[in-house]
Specification:
The protein is mainly α and 200 residues long. It folds into 2 domains: 66 residues; 98 residues, no CATH class. 46% of the residues lie in helices and 2% in strands. It is built from 8 helices and 2 strands; from the N terminus they run H-H-H-E-E-H-H-H-H-H. A two-stranded antiparallel sheet has the order 1-2. Helix 4 runs parallel beside helix 6. 26% of the residues are buried.
């Protein structure tokens, strides 16, 4: 969102990337699922091509680079993370670690698989990027919260399989389950446990 406090920052960023205000508006609307841009008198086709050429769009999907550009244009009031310190590669690596850590299914010890948990990677990736880039949630916080929840479920699975109650990946993120765990101050994402395709 462009505000009085960050208009100069947005204009400078547009100049650096060679984008017009029309292209910024179009990118913002696509990133937030807004149909408002259809009512505007924009040369949509040429602006779409310009955004695709700069790797801000893949067809009509906003790329991680596009999301990062939008996020850098905002003035954050949250303290969890400074997006400018995270490169697209680092965010992608953080998501991949999160994805690989998340249980494939509810199979655990002698309990058989009844549900697939790790599903719809594109939707999960989009949701993850939204929380990291738009809401400034620290990737390491999300990662450590997931690892802690898995540890607790393992310990609690005595009489029944607690992984049966674990939601799908995207649901886990949208429920903000990481907020149930205390955030640590470390910047780095550390995962000493190596996870296989199933939780043993």
């Amino acid at each position: 969102m462009i505000t009085k406090t960050n208009i100069e920052e947005v204009i400078n960023k547009l100049a650096q990337e060679g984008l017009s205000l029309d292209q910024y508006t179009l990118l913002y609307c696509l990133a937030h699922g807004l149909d408002s841009f259809r009512k505007l008198k924009l040369d949509k086709l040429s602006n779409l091509r310009a955004l695709q050429k700069r790797d801000f769009l893949d067809e009509l999907e906003v790329t991680p680079r596009g999301l990062l550009f939008l996020s850098d244009s905002y003035v954050s009031t949250k303290k969890q993370v400074t997006v400018s310190t995270l490169s697209p590669k680092e965010i992608l690596e953080a998501f991949n670690l999160f994805w690989q850590t998340y249980p494939v299914s509810d199979k655990h010890k002698h309990w058989k698989r009844t549900r697939t948990l790790r599903t719809n990677k594109p939707a999960a990736k989009k949701t993850y990027y939204n929380y990291v880039l738009q809401e400034k949630i620290r990737p390491s916080w999300i990662q450590k919260a997931l690892e802690e929840e898995i540890r607790i479920m393992k310990e609690a699975s005595i009489l029944d399989n607690r992984f049966t109650y674990m939601p799908l990946v995207t649901t886990w993120l949208n429920q903000r389950r990481y907020e149930s765990f205390e955030e640590e101050d470390e910047e780095e994402i550390i995962s000493e446990t190596k996870y296989g395709e199933e939780i043993e």
